[in-house]
Amino acid sequence: MPIVVVCGRCKARSGAKDSAAGKQYPCPKCGEAILVPSAETAVAAPASPSARPPSPAGAGRAPGAVQRRPAAQPTAPAQPAGQRQVRRSAAQPVPPANEDDQPLPTAEVVSAGPFILNAFQGEIESVSVGLGYKLSIGLVLMFMLLLPVVYVALIGLVCVLIGLHAVHDTALLHTGRGRGALLAVLIYLAPLGAGAVLVFFMFKPLFARPLKRGRPRSLSRNQEPLLFAFVDRVCEVVGAPSPSRIDVDCDVNASASFRRGLLSMFGDDLVLTIGLPLVAGLNTRQLAGVLAHEFGHFSQGAGMRLSYLVRSVSFWLTRVVYERDAWDARLVGLSQELDIRLGIVFYMARVFVWCTRKILWCLMVLGHLISGILMREMEFDADCYEARLAGSDCFEATSRQVMLLDAATHGAYADLDDFAREGRLADDLPRLIAANVGQLKPAVVELVNKAVDEEAAGLFATHPAWRDRIDRAHDEQAPGVFHVELPSASLFRDFAALCRTCTFDFYRAVFGKGFKLTDMHPVEHLLAKQERTIDDVKSLKRYFQDSFVLMLPLRLPPASLTETSAGQVATDLKRAREEMLQSLPTHKAVFDDYDQADTDWLRAEVADALLNLKLPLHGDDFKDRFADLNSTREARLAARQRLERLAPRLAAFDQLRLRRLSCALELLHVDKVATRIPQGQERIEECQRVRLAATVAGAQVGKWLAVRNRLAVLRALCSYLETHAKNAGLLGSLEKNVSLLARQIRDLQFELSQTRYPFAHAKGEPTLSEFLLPEPFSDSDPMAVLSAGGALLDGFGTLCARLFGRLTALAEEVETLLGLPRLPQPAEPERK
After folding, report:
1. Hey, which residues does 256 pair with through a beta bridge?
2. Confidence (pTM)
3. Which is it for the CA torsion 242, 248, 251, 252, positive or negative?
């Protein structure tokens, strides 16, 4: 009887012979590789969940596991006690498959659902909790509940003091006449007004709700029957109640909580929230372990509820101490704006509010210290459930993979910023995050693994250190009861569509209701464009041997090719290439000196601006090198002289390498060359557009450096604004420098507005200026000017790298046709 399989790419059904079980064969429609399951696991799902197919080979039982029903075939024996599981290597972002298990069917197999659900081999032993542990939870809870009582008592004390003042100090209202009487009335009324404001601000945290984030999307059993069944099986194995609702969002996290907060605390009304990036980055075994961890918190009913109260009080205290809203800002504004005779009431209220928050800060720190010990122990207990369900070896691989997903999230957000510059946003954020895991550099992966191995938990940490958690999981020596390692996306009917929907929800929460579906673009198209840009930047490093740095204007020589001079241009290209390579070591040494002189000059500029305002210099290096204005100006003059002496030597090398690039681009227009390059005519047209933009942008490096220098001074001045808010000289200097920065930005915008952005853009053909600063800004708004300057500073360098990278990629193709091999890829600089 043929085995029916379904292709994961085109969804075409096909039949395979029984002899093909466990082997791969290409889809007859699209060629995608399909893994054929065994005939036993490919049959339709039985009506009763008790009728299971044979379990996968190698699936063992956790220590103390209880087999719920006889298996169709005996399972492999459990690992002998005292023998530690072999730890899986975490050098690669994606953990390898379990080599001990037999080949498993792919997620596209029709019977994947029954196969996954029937792969759970019994229940696991509950984590034992002693009487002392339960008593400690109760004691911690009693202490934490005392903290809000102390807070309410503080409010009562303030009210009593205000009442005593109002009753016993009425004599101030009958003190003489004239100015003395007016002063006495003010002394009587000021504490009353300040006290009323203080009481309001102390009551406010009791009723203020936390800031709302974007609401996650809820799923139903009808929508995702396999996911709900999978979660139910995890809960059944762990011994925890099943959630009444499952939510999904775009966070790299999973959590289980009471659906209605305190109202659900005395029942089993739970909500599970799953971050779709976790689904995209973990396999089913890892995801099952993560869910077991979350539901492990709920397997101990009373302890879980007590710990929930502890966490709630701790979180509330943190909000009381740190959270600010519009009312707090208004209090500060009134104290500064009103006449001192009225403003003193609000100044007094601010002082009192500050004092009460400092008292609460002490209580919060004490509460975090005590509750942190309990929370860390509870995390250890939950980790045991994860290890016992998925296996001790899987725990470490999952932990490292989650950390890599966290690191990849930062890269994904940076990608979104790059995509947004071209008017496009990816339509699948979870997939973008998962793609970034594969793009992490080995150095980043090493840093992540090092952080896992060397992290230490502080006194106030709510989670133990990763190394301690991994060691504790390995001490369990649990083989696990679930070993299926299919893509977690197979648990969803249409994972890609759900990711797009949640990504749209994420953008709506960030950008508001004005965001539309048409603003999203297929992530695969954006990733393909990004890959091409990455290749262009690699080409830029190869072509110039990592000597491309924006320090001097980059002016490409004008085109001068004729049909009769093509041979001479090719000769000039080879000569320029050889001379560039010969001069490279000397150039790098000169550039290092130039770069250091530029840094010294910029630091002296910043120090001069601060010392002119008599502001203290921060940092020992600043203090030692710039003791006073004279030494600062001498250092600035010396740095400027070094720059002027070294600049001609750098310029000579720049002319050499740009001449090489120009010759290669000119040869691209020769018919014999263009016809040998794929899509030659399109490459010529692209070269013309990009070269024009690169010529214009490269000529403006000097103006861009002026923006950089002004921003450095402004940022240094802004760092003193909080502690020297009344310094008139500082405020005047800020205003002057903001005005100069706005003028410099406008000058650079004008030069860049003469040329179109040469690459595809969702909003037509913007100019280079519009691409870098798509939104207008007001010169009179300091924050808007600073923001525009920062965007221009970062975007201009990236733009130039992309423009010249695209040109060098075209130039490399020409040089290859001339028989010149590509230069080696420069090594990445070592991390310090």
Report:
1. 272
2. 0.69
3. positive
